[in-house]
Amino acid sequence: MPIDGELQTFFAKRNTEGIKTALAELPPSRKGCVFENVLAELYRGNGWIVTVEGGRGDDGADILLSHPKTPHTVSLIVQTKNHNKPLTLDQTRSELIKFEQQAAPRYKCQQFRLVSVNGFVGAAEKLRAFNLLLDSWEHVEKLMQHYNPKKNVLPNVELFSHNQQTYNELQKLWRENNHVAVVQATGTGKSFLIAKVMSDFHGKHKIVLAPSHYILDQQKSKAPWLNDKTIYWTYAGLVRKSVKDIKALNTSLIVLDEFHRCGADEWGKGVQKLLDTHTNAKVLGTSATPIRYLDESRDMTEELFDGVVAADISLAEAIVIRILPTPTYISTLYSLEEEIKTLLEDVDLSKRTDDEKKNIREEIKVVQLDWEKTSGVPEILKRYLPKDINKLIVFCKDQEHLDQMEVEVQKWFQKAGTHKFREKYRILSADPQSKKSLRRFIEADNKDTVHLLFAIDMLNEGLHIPKVDAVILLRPTESPTIFYQQIGRCIEVGKGRSPIIIDLVNNFQNVRAMDFLNDLKEATVEESKRRTELGLSSYTPSMHVQELTLNIEEVFDSIRERLVSWEIQYEALCSFKEKHGHCNVPNKYPDNASLGKWVGNQRTAGKNNKILSTRMQRLEAIGFVWDIDAVAWEKMFENLRTFKEKHGHSNVPEGYSDNPSLAIWVSHQRSTWKSNALSKEHIRSLAELGFVWKPHLTAWEKMLETLRSYNEKHGHCNVPNRFSDNPALGHWCQIQRQARKNGKLSNERIRRLEELEFIWDSITAAWDEMFKDLCAFKDKFRHCNVPQRYPDNPSLGGWVGTQRRDWSKGRLQKDRIRRLEELGFVMDPISAAWDEMHEALCGFNKIYGHCNVPQDYTDNPILGPWVNRQRLARRKGNLPKDRIQRLDALGFAWDPLPAVWEEMFEALCAFKQKNGHCNVSQRYTDNPSLGMWAWSQRKAWKKGKMSQSVPGVWRSWDLFGIPLLAGNTCSRRSAILKKCTDIVTYHIDTLTIPILEVGSADKDELCGRVSYQWNESDD
Q1: Domains of the chain: residue spans and CATH
Q2: Do residues 719 and 729 make contact, with C-beta atoms less than 8 angstroms apart?
Q3: What is the pLDDT of residues 342-394, one digit of tens each?
Q4: Which pTM does this prediction carry?
Q5: Are 206 and 510 in contact (CB under 8 A)?
Q6: How many other C-beta atoms lie within 10 A of the C-beta of residue 106?
Q7: CA atoms within 13 Å, Cβ hemisphere of 666
């Protein structure tokens, strides 16, 4: 529906108040429809692709917004309300329910905006937590500011509800803390949040740090107009920068993307150097996985941000609250070769007859063919991978594995027949072509081709590639960080389809995938509670898990049971026990390949109560352990006990060479404890050993002891920020002060620090200390003008300069100004010195009647040069008006040369009267300077430096016996001089000199004699 003519006029004038008034005056039947069209036009003029759906049957969606870069995907659903009053909680909740139940599934979009002309009641704000943006008329005004009717712009950075809440909380926390972290799951749009924050610092210097150039390039593309004053560095690049380079940044905003990587030693040092240099800059850190599980489970939010977090949204929470789509997880093995090879070896070694062995081999072959036909990778791809998904990332173990799988994976897709063509790409840290390869993958758009990007770890974090809706996992991993990062490559906010995770190494059998499922269950329970409290229906995400190896494993186990009788395997187990002292046979025991599998089958049968009681008793009689996990735990616990006895603590470092698996086990205990999945018995055993659950707390204790030692040595706790003996100590002290200020430091820690007389306001304490030093200086020297390089206290001179600089800029506190002035401190020493010299000049003037102080004035040798400096300063325009006025009041001569000339001329006249001539000797004892002055006049005249710029006159030096008309006889000169009349004076340049006015009749003759050109107007 077109916009009314009156509204079009308001649009042309960008008159939002006129639009609002016009909307309010519409009849009820048209109020909603017209507002809907007004908003739709504003969105179009802000760069969005707009579809208007309003009316009956719109399922709670008036307007659908799509970004020009993803035109076929609905990015945001908008509902408009033109009511006369703010929407109530019930009205808002009703719209949210309609959106969740109708609009979201219909348009495959979980992001909702409700725009009400007259806003909402306060209680409705609670509903923002459910992917709901609540906007009032201010939103319309903001759209109008950026409205371009030509529609040739791209939309501004648009935050979904969860990121808008994070942004609001970030702004709130930044009022009290400069360093704030954001922990949000991979795919939740952290890069858009960063772009929004950067836009707040538009025109100011910013720096963005990330682990790789790929992540930085992605961030640059989000808001290219912000790149002008933004520096993008990798953490590795930062390490190579000098302190001078870092100081020159002069940055107002520091972004630490994937900040958990700052826990690495070298990268951490570079970041700390940057933070120490720019203490006033705002710092934003973003990460999906801030815990470094394999590094003593260090929590980098505690270490870098002192626990100040604006948001903490896990992957499970993001899925449950519908920020991210629920994935489909397919778990299987990509090959049965190893399992079949082992089973066939068991067949050959068995005591079965040849015919029995032949039959079993045939059975195994049938099972293999059946598995490949129904559960092999090509069949899985054909069954679970939609044909319109044609971009996948394949994660491999290492380069050798990648080289092998590039060929194998293409064969799978060829056999599956899901796509006509196949194109492979690779991204490796050692491959210089990786960047080009990644670019080709991103830009690839051939629908008939499956595009396969093979990677090892360069795409684990931070980088989101458009249209990647599936990943293939070929890399087994125990790291929860890597597991979550890899599956997160295909899970992204705003996607309408369910992403697909194809796990071909059975990662889903490991503890990380189980943790993920448990997290989903816990998040679902919490979300249901929140929704129930606000009258919303419960919501349970359906995580589709397909484990396709169970059947084949059961068949193989059955065959093994038939190959060797229970009694034979039991006897083999007894032999193993006699040789090794236990019954924990490895799964691939080289001396008897089938024995390990048999032992595993007995445990499974015992767990499911499918073993005869007599057999159970016989196994237990030889010390058979049914719960091997418990035995493994006890074994590792004993290893930890040994470590504790040797090292005095249980903090096994990452990569512990004596027992690498122990460090991983210790990290796993901490992460399991944190997720409440560790049994009470295990917690008790570890606690009795003195196990540290949060190693960063122990780090606090170590730093406290270091501070105690510093206090004993120096007598105080004011550790400098750049304390060379231990640079981390000064920074740690600053963290404690900030934590207490923010209410984040426990009372116990406050008490322990105050026992050391820890000073919370270190800046005030340092100022007081320097003021004491200044008082001592004053007592010794009777003034406060400390030299810049005062040897007894080098820092005092710099501190004094800082006080004056702060005072001049209005930054010095009134109390400090008062204390300094009471001490006799001069805030502006330059002005004070000027006043002192002005006073001396007043004294000179009182004695001599003028201000022309000789340069060699012995009573005050510095007064003459000072007077000259005032004249020079005025000539250059550097002398303030008030000083000029004060000097003028004394009759100060700004151009002293005429006065000096007159004085010397008078002396020359006296000499002439006494001696009858003007030939003053340069060694004239009565007035030594007179001879030199007479000589300088002759010299100036000879060099043509005597100006004759005034028409009709000439200088009569012959009055003093100085030959002027060279070449004329004395009688001729006398004749010329007789025609001259009165003596007058005039100013030429800076000299006042006597002249003779010449009669007009003699101009030509006189002019010719003195080589002077007369002007036409000369009289």
Answers
A1: 5-145 (3.40.1350.10), 161-313 (3.40.50.300), 328-547 (3.40.50.300), 564-626 (no CATH), 629-688 (no CATH), 695-754 (no CATH), 762-822 (no CATH), 829-888 (no CATH), 930-1010 (no CATH)
A2: yes
A3: 778 778 877 778 888 888 888 888 877 777 666 678 888 888 888 888 889 99
A4: 0.53
A5: no
A6: 15
A7: 33
